Each structure stands twice: as C-alpha cells, then as structure tokens.
Amino acid sequence: MSTDYQQARSALGSRLRELRASCPGGRLTGTQLAARLGWTQSKVSKLENGRQTATAEDLRLWTVATRQPETFDELHARLRGFESHIRSWRRQLASGHRPVQDTWNELVAETSVIHEWEPTMVSGLLQTADYARHVFLSYSELQNSMRDTEAAVRSRMKRQEWLYQPGKKLQVLLWEAALRTLICPPSVLAAQLDRLVGVIGMDTVTLGIVPLGSTVKVPPANGFYILDGRLAITEDWHAELWLDDADSVSTYQRVWQALRRSAVSGADAQRVLAEARRALY
After folding, report:
1. What is the CA radius of gyration of the chain?
2. Cα–Cα distance between 249 and 234 in angstroms, integer?
3. With 60 as the cut, is the pLDDT of residue 142 above it?
4. How many Å apart are CA 73 and CA 63, to the nearest integer?
5. Looking at residue 2, what is its pLDDT?
6. pLDDT for 32-84, tens place per residue?
7. SS3 per residue for the chain
8. Distance CA 188, CA 138 (A)
9. Of 1, 40, 131, 270, most Cβ neighbours within 10 A?
10. What's the rounded Cα separation, in Å, for the pair 254 and 276?
11. What is the pLDDT at residue 85?
12. Which domains does the chain have, with CATH numbers?
C-alpha cells in the first residue's frame, strides 16, 4: 500500500476520532460508540488508527452515532480523494466485472485523447469480443470474482463506439509480446490480429508496435493510460491506480514518448502483425 494512501487513511481515522471525542453531550469511548453502531470495538479501533478503509456507509453511520451528521460530506470527500488513487480489485470486483467496465465507459466518454501503452495484451478499445471474453475469464479465476463475463464483454464492446466519434483519438502502443501471448486459443488470437490490421489507417486510431528486438529507452514495464493529459491510470495485481497529480501524469507522458520512439507504425506495423499471425500455425 502506498505511503500517500496510508497517510490519507490515517488522517481520516484521526478525524473520526475527533468526532467521537467531540460528540455533543459528552465524549464517547470506543466501546460506547461500537455499542451504538452495533459494531465490534475492534472495527472502531481499526478505522481510527488507519488500519481499515471505511466505506461511505461506515462514515454516514459514524456521523449519525456521534450526532454530527453535517460532517458527512467532508468525510466522504476525504474518502473519495484517496480512494480515487488506489482502487483495489477486491472491492471493485465485488459486484462483478460489468460495473468496472461501465465506470470506464463513463470515463472514456468524457475523454477526447487517450494515450495507451500495453505490453502484454491488446488494448481493450481494440479487442474482439472473443478475445475480451478470455481476458475476463482469466481475471475472474485469478481474483475469484463473480463471472458476469458476457455482460462485461457487452460493456467493453459498447465502449468501442467511442472510436467512431469525431474528435476522438486513441494513440496506442503495443509491445510485440502482446501480439504473441496466448491468453486465448490461436484461432481467437488470429482474429484479434486481423482486427488490429483493420484499424491501421483509421482517422481516430494511431497504432504503434514496439518490436521485441527493439532498443528501448525505458523498460517496457506495466501498461497504462493517459486521458487528456489530466489522469494516468495503471494496473497492478492488487489494484488499479488513478493518478491525477501533475508530476505523476508528466512521468507517464515521458514514458509513453520514450516508448513511441522505439515503435513502428503503418506498413512496418502490418509486417509485425503478419509475422505474429504466421507464427500461430
């Protein structure tokens, strides 16, 4: 867990402790507050000491129990502020993959330009339905999450309508490894590679491929998105990170530009795609 995240969670816990101590009618002990809420005393302690992340409902109940409901908006804003940076997969996938895809649809809908780097699989905005289906099934098994695969695929396919809207631009870089990784049957990957050939030349898509033998200026590490230069999003196994501070976004922009210098496009990208397809059979 990041230091910034933990500091923000600890600060929220301190604020909760202040509300308990300043309860109208007299200070409440942790045990008394737990009894009012119907919680264990350990939950109160964990929230106050930054060892557990509160939910919005936890905060609402806390403000009511301490007779200070007017503070809910402040607490909720704090929660949104640090949760917007680290969004755990366990919590996001509690209701399945479809809600996560719907959130992305809303985010992309209000974005004009997306820069993306994908080192291990094809960009979601360019995936075929069959390829996406295998991606969701893999992550459902890994995260032990609800298998709402078909609903998640439909939501991801709907997001691709963005590619056909005027004024939109996807600038995506793929590492050649993403074209060869068999996270699906060869026949599905072959159709996916054909799809990538088809987007070359689209007005709204710029596709670059970094060949495996290329000299690169930075290590081709984790994938990420940059949305309108205002938000960088990257993924790890435990969580998705949303970074909106200028320094972080600038770092990801520099990484993207460094990788772009190693990429091929147009006819050269088509040749890389054709080689990857021939290797399947």
Report:
1. 23
2. 11
3. yes
4. 10
5. 47
6. 999 999 999 999 999 999 988 888 899 999 999 999 999 999 999 888 777 66
7. CCHHHHHHHHHHHHHHHHHHHCCCCCCCCHHHHHHHHCCCHHHHHHHHCCCCCCCHHHHHHHHHHCCCHHHHHHHHHHHHHHHCCEEEHHHHHHHCHHHHHHHHHHHHHCCCEEEEEECCCCCHHHCCHHHHHHHHHHHHHHHCCCCCHHHHHHHHHHHHHHHHCCCCEEEEEEECHHHHCCCCCHHHHHHHHHHHHHHCCCCCEEEEEECCCCCCCCCCCCCEEEECCCEEEEECCCEEEEECCHHHHHHHHHHHHHHHCCCECHHHHHHHHHHHHHCCC
8. 15
9. 131
10. 28
11. 80
12. 3-83 (1.10.260.40), 87-278 (3.30.870.10)
The total of other beta-carbon atoms located within 10 Å of residue 52's CB is: 16
**The pLDDT of residue 83:** 65
> CA-CA distance, 172 to 156, in Å (whole number)?
17
Own/partner contacts of 83-88, CB < 8 Å, gap of 24 or more, are 83/53, 84/242, 84/244, 85/2, 85/4, 85/5, 85/241, 85/242, 85/243, 85/244, 86/1, 86/2, 86/5, 86/239, 86/240, 86/241, 86/242, 87/239, 87/240, 87/241, 87/242, 88/238, 88/239
Scan for tokens 């309860």, then name that residue: 23
Q: Any residues with CB less than 8 A from the CB of 176 and at least 6 apart, and which?
A: 209, 210, 211, 212, 272, 276
